[in-house]
Write a structure and sequence with these properties.
transport; membrane; single chain; transmembrane helix; Growth Hormone, Chain: A; MFS family permease; disordered N terminus; TM_effector
């Protein structure tokens, strides 16, 4: 499994290790500090993009239609390369993949800064840049997920995934957009893109310093490269389909994403308005508390030991965390909506920390990139469908029944997954905690 950090240059003194609280223990390893810094910079760059691209579209005289095309192009690039990114992560240097992905994002954002300054930027260029960013992320995330177990001891993987769970909302939803807004208001939208290029270049530099242990499969593949890639994908699917817990959990995840993403992203602002709970500021506050709940849940889970019944706890936390969504279609009190979203964010993010650790602990290192990308692909595919279906569903039945389905369906499917896939037996047969 994962290589111990003692093999890769951890020189921090033992007394300092002992003083670190559990959520911060991965930082005692210099290699992880570099990798976590690269992740944080990349997430901040993505958060900056979400704000910068809106104001740049406005600055060049384009409108909502062009912005929609740009957003769609980024999603297409990501989905199109997610599976291939997993195959490449299992074949090539994961460190090198991350460096190249971050360098590509830096060059793409930098090109926008240059052409915008010269008044030559067009919506077409922004669409191409969005595709490049999506493709880069399709390679980056499987490589990052597969590289973490190589630089972090197994006992610290839960904390490392908790750190990632805290960084995502903090940097993508708060710090990144805030930084871009400041650059735009003080100078111009083009300067925000220069900042994006800078943070991705720094992310590439940090990753380039990481020393990567050998974990990938160097077995020679016969036949053409295309046939070889298809063979690797087939092997990844075969491993997934013959591993009960890997069948049960993504099946549950499809349901979770399908019934919750659309209601939260699309219906929630209208529910808040129509029920008299507030307007745009109330919606922004509700989403901020949802993200704050995610940070809190990730922090809390990273401070704990991995549960003995890790599969059951994970699925029940994911499913049970959706129950508070039932009040979103009924309450006219903003504090109730905020409390429900905070609780939902905390429980579902905590479960996500267990899931990331589970993949890194139980999936063979040579297969980890492909399995991570398959999981990523499943989630990505269900989210657009959820947002497409939620509007017609609300028009036909109203928002209250839609939120009720979002609250009840995940827990129902979680209980069925635990029972039908015999996960309680599986987690006992494959313990991830030391016997006392």
């Amino acid at each position: 499994m994962a290589t111990s950090t003692s093999d890769i240059g951890d020189t921090d003194p033992a007394p300092r290790r002992a003083r670190l609280p559990r959520p911060l223990r991965p930082f005692r390893t210099g290699q992880y500090r570099l990798l976590a810094t690269a992740l944080g910079l990349s997430l901040a760059g993505s958060g900056m993009w979400t704000v910068a691209v809106v104001w740049q579209v406005i600055a060049i005289g384009a409108g909502p239609s062009e912005l929609s095309l740009i957003a769609t192009a980024g999603g297409v690039g990501l989905v199109a390369t997610a599976l291939l990114g997993g195959v490449v992560a299992d074949r090539a240097s994961r460190r090198r993949i991350i460096v190249l992905a971050q360098a590509a994002k830096a060059m793409a954002a930098g090109s926008v800064a240059v052409t915008a300054t010269m008044d030559l930027l067009t919506p077409g260029q922004l669409i191409v840049v969005a595709v490049v960013l999506g493709i880069a992320d399709g390679f980056f995330y499987p490589a990052y997920s597969a590289l973490v177990p190589s630089v972090v001891p197994q006992d610290d993987l839960l904390a490392a995934n908790g750190i990632e769970g805290m960084l995502r909302p903090t940097l993508m939803q708060a710090a990144g957009p805030g930084t871009a807004s400041a650059l735009i208001s003080v100078i111009a939208p083009s300067m925000a893109f220069a900042g994006i290029a800078g943070v991705h270049l720094l992310a590439a530099t940090c990753t380039a310093i990481v020393r990567e242990p050998e974990t990938r499969d160097r077995t020679a593949r016969p036949g053409s490269p295309v046939r070889s890639v298809v063979g690797d994908l087939r092997a990844g699917f075969a491993y997934l389909l013959t591993t009960p817990w890997l069948v049960a959990t993504p099946t549950f995840a499809v349901t979770l994403v399908l019934v919750t993403v659309g209601p939260i992203q699309i219906l929630l602002p209208f529910a808040i308005r129509d029920q008299g709970a507030g307007g745009p500021q109330a919606f922004a506050l509700a989403l901020a508390c949802y993200g704050l709940g995610g940070v809190s849940g990730s922090l809390a889970m990273s401070a704990l030991a991995l549960p003995r019944r890790y599969l059951s706890v994970m699925l029940l936390a994911w499913g049970g965390g959706c129950l508070p969504l039932a009040v979103l279609g009924a309450s006219d009190q903003l504090w109730v909506v905020i409390a429900a979203l905070f609780l939902c964010g905390a429980l579902t993010s905590g479960a996500g920390v267990i899931w990331g650790t589970l993949l890194q602990r139980r999936v063979p290192p040579a297969m980890l990139g492909r399995v991570s990308s398959l999981d990523f692909f499943v989630s990505l595919s269900a989210a657009p469908l959820s947002m497409a279906l939620v509007g017609p569903a609300a028009a036909a039945w109203g928002s209250r029944p839609v939120f009720l389905v979002a609250a009840v369906a995940p827990l129902t499917v979680a209980v069925l997954a635990i029972a039908l896939a015999r996960l309680r037996r599986d987690e006992i047969d494959h313990p991830l905690t030391r016997a006392r």
